[in-house]
């Protein structure tokens, strides 16, 4: 559908129907040209500012004093997933100095050296996942491969058994659905169930003395004499089980779809795996699986020629910023040979840059190394199904076929 003749003032870009067939590239390009900071009317009679340019998203991300995560949350409704008072215990909802303290503690579990030590574990998880499908010669890539790899890694890092993975998957699906629900607090019961489960896991691991699990390493981490409390660890794992799984799985599924749509580039990765790290960066840019987050203005300010008032909601459209023509040449072209694409997939920079970026990159790289090696002649074999959401770029279904191969993990 052409958007050239539409009145931008009448468009609600947060409506999921705009994303039913993928990214509305033309609409975002027009917004960046004509209204890069645009007032967006919402169905409830309120509105929000939609920010679509790369430089403006970066500016908001780095100015936590003016644009707050804590004041009204990261979604359009302050109580969208959880009551705001509870959600404020999540790192994503914190502003400095509270955010600084918690990030310093948590990032000790995600240092580059720590992630490097996990590579053999990641590869074993990927091998196990591919073993489950490789003999059949077909699978639903979104469900059978993209889901179990990151979810299995998170549960393994947490030190919980594989037999509990289906329960974690159910919880993450319910939390994701809560983000799209009409009623607030839709995930409160889910987090209560997860909290009870994770509390039991903490008690078990303390008893076992399992010092290598992420639970125990977080309990031991200390910054300026302060440590996380057990309730704070519980809340962190609620976030990790959702955010650390959902984003990576959607990137892997959408990334494979992009490669299947560009078979010549997929073949390049098969022929030369050294190209995979650069391809991962283009996949991260091109898929932009978290399309936006909200901030709230703490004072009257100006951005992109618009006067923003204290209390106004401001949506940073990462999915548009990563396609800004001022930063990326021919941005709608998928090209694994781009030189360090400047994307906003892990946030706009600043304090809220994704804590798990290193782990996500490692999982994606190792997954593609094994997939391109083992799933020979992989092709899409049916229609894909997209998640009905303006916030998450997710695939529910991606059927593929490939030449049957042997298991490796036995």
TrEMBL record:
Pfam families assigned to the protein according to its UniProt record, in alphabetical order: p450
E.C. numbers: 1.14.15.29
Enzyme class: oxidoreductase
GO biological process annotation, one example: cholesterol catabolic process
A molecular-function term among this protein's GO annotations: heme binding
Keyword Metal-binding: yes
PANTHER family, per database record: BIOTIN BIOSYNTHESIS CYTOCHROME P450, P450, PUTATIVE (EUROFUNG)-RELATED
Name the record gives this protein: Steroid C26-monooxygenase
Native organism taxonomy: Bacteria, Bacillati, Actinomycetota, Thermoleophilia, Solirubrobacterales
